[in-house]
Amino acid sequence: MIQVAPSLLAADFAHLAEAVEMVNRSEASLIHIDVMDGMFVPNITIGFPIISSISKIAEKPLDVHMMVMDPGRFVGQVRDCGAAIMNVHWEACTHLNRVIHTIKDAGMRAAVTLNPATPVMLLEDIIEELDMVLLMSVNPGFGGQKFIRQTVNKVRQLRAMIDGSASEATIEIDGGVDLNTAPALIEAGADILVAGSYVFRAADPVKAISDLKSL
Question: For the chain, which terminal residue's Cβ has fewer other Cβ atoms within 10 angstroms, N or C?
Answer without folding.
Answer: N
